[in-house]
Amino acid sequence: MLKVESLAKSYRNKVIIDDISFTINKGDIVGLVGENGAGKSTLLSILATLKKPTKGNIFLEDKSFDHSKKAIRREIGYVPQDLALWEEFTVEENMIFFEQLSWVNRNKDELRQLCVDMKLEKWKEPVHSLSGGMKRKLNLAISLIHQPNLLLLDEPTVGIDLKSKTEIGNYLHTLAKKQQKMIIYTSHDMEEIRQLCDYVIVIGKDTFYKEILLKSGKPVLSF
Ligand SMILES: Nc1ncnc2c1ncn2[C@@H]1O[C@H](COP(=O)(O)OP(=O)(O)OP(=O)(O)O)[C@@H](O)[C@H]1O
């Protein structure tokens, strides 16, 4: 379980996030939506332990973000908006490189299976020759190497076609429902959010997204 209590973040005196509280259980896929600049990436990077909140508490199971940062990092897979891949290396070489940096040992078959599960079958191809959707899949596969329990995905399907979006969505659904991962997922595509997420956290002043989601019957928490 991930528990966020009264979280706030300001840059200098500008309040970006104000008093957010929510709980995510194992197996939940939670959408995080809001207008540009609402603070979605800021919230994800706080949950990824990369930024400190101005106020509030966060717990992953019984571990506090204030006291157990190292242990918590092992449990988290974070995929930022920007791709972080070695373009000249093949898919295989990228997977092996990131496995070497991770806390767990995964053999080549296991690494390859992670890619196959995501329908990324270009194992021997250099990354620069892959489509945008395939690169996004590879970024996601890399974030799963250390078998995290909490996945934080910042617009993982931005700019990719419907087929790849659907494949990524199906895979995330399997990760949550069969492997009991917790997933927080940002997107500006409300249809995708509606189909994939169990509930949605809406942040920011604009009520546009909240209204669309409520109309579709999706449970919404808004801040
Ligand atoms: N290091 C920083 N210093 C000052 N302001 C920042 C910093 N990082 C982000 N901000 C500001 O915080 C606000 C929220 O940014 P953030 O990137 O979290 O929004 P977002 O909801 O993810 O937006 P988008 O949908 O465009 O990705 C923006 O106004 C941004 O300019």
From TrEMBL:
SUPFAM superfamilies (UniProt xref): P-loop containing nucleoside triphosphate hydrolases
Domain of life: Bacteria
Name this polypeptide is given: ABC transporter ATP-binding protein
SMART domains named in the record: AAA (SM00382)
Keyword match RNA-binding: no
InterPro entries per record: AAA+_ATPase, ABC_transporter-like_ATP-bd, ABC_transporter-like_CS, ABC_transporter_ATP-binding, P-loop_NTPase
PROSITE patterns per record: ABC_TRANSPORTER_1, ABC_TRANSPORTER_2
UniProt keyword terms in alphabetical order: ATP-binding, Nucleotide-binding, Transport
Record-linked PANTHER family: ABC TRANSPORTER ATP-BINDING PROTEIN, ABC TRANSPORTER ATP-BINDING PROTEIN NATA
The family this protein is said to belong to: Belongs to the ABC transporter superfamily.
GO molecular function, one term: ATP hydrolysis activity
Keyword Nucleotide-binding: yes
Annotated ranges, domain ABC transporter: 2-223
